[in-house]
Amino acid sequence: MLDTTALNQQRNFFDGHADIWLFGYGSLIWKADFAYLERRPAYIQGWERRFWQGSHDHRGTLESPGRVATLIRAKDSICHGMAYRITPEVLAPLDIREKNGYLREKVLLTFLAENGEAAKQSEGLIYLASEDNPAFLGEAPLTEIAQQIANAHGPSGPNKEYLLNLATALRELGATDAHIFDLELQLSRI
Ligand code: SIN
Question: Its GO CC terms (predicted)?
Fold first, then answer.
């Protein structure tokens, strides 16, 4: 299986910074099992969430991979998520958690104020699984993606838990995401 841990340790976009903003758009929204100094709802522009990344280590197995979130470029779209201000040593365990194809990338985050309006911006990190990584599964009909999610289980638990927790977390953020909510509906029909 692929392991991007060593690659990510070379991707030090914020070298020398005492703290770093990390933007989570998938499980990092609802499973913050790392230390952070503060967290704030935020979005990134030019990206859309998709369940197009294979999971062989968390929500599936080598024989029966699950599907988890990654991002694709979409010029006029925004993707809502959660930004965490972390200290640099928190990246090492995150690199391990995200090792199956995700690479650190630098992005511009826009924080949301209490009233939901865009407030200030900052550069931050995402973990991105791009289409050239070996675990990338890509597009498929939503019914097929939902079926695969319904069937897959891995060391971190059932794949459907990942999707349902993400949909719930997005609703709590007041965010809409057609791909995620359509998949949730398809899953409920299985
Ligand atoms: C993220 O949540 O930002 C990355 C993908 C994942 O860990 O689910």
Answer: cytoplasm
Calculate how far, in angstroms, residue 25's C-alpha sits from the geometric centre of ligand 1.
6
Does residue 189 lie within any of the structural domains?
A: no
Q: Is 23 helix (H, G, I), strand (E, B) or coil?
A: strand
Q: Which domain holds residue 56?
A: 5-183
Q: SS in 3 state form for 50-85?
A: EEEEEECCCCCCCCCCEEEEEEEEEEEEEEEEEEEE
Question: What's the rounded mean pLDDT across residues 167-183?
Answer: 97
Atom index in ligand 1 nearest the CA of residue 29 equals 2
Instruction: Say what the pLDDT of residue 122 is.
Output: 97
Q: What is the CATH number of the domain that holds 41?
A: 3.10.490.10
Domain count of the fold of the chain = 1
Ordered DSSP codes for 31-51: ---S--SEEEEEEEEEEEEEE
What pLDDT was estimated at residue 119? Answer: 79
Closest ligand 1 atom to 70 CA: 5
What are the tens digits of pLDDT across the range 148-161?
999 999 999 999 99
Q: Is residue 45 part of a domain?
A: yes
Q: What is the pLDDT of residues 88-133, one digit of tens each?
A: 999 999 999 999 999 999 999 999 987 767 679 999 999 999 999 9
Q: Is residue 188 part of a domain?
A: no
- Residue located nearest, by CA, to atom 5 of ligand 1: 26
Ligand 1, closest atom to CA 26?
A: 2
How much distance in Å is there from the Cα of 41 to the middle of ligand 1? 15
- Residue 102 falls inside a structural domain: yes
Question: Which among 135, 3, 133 has a CA at the least distance from the CA of 60?
Answer: 135
Which residues approach ligand 1 with their CB closer than 6 A? Answer: 24-28, 68-69, 98, 127
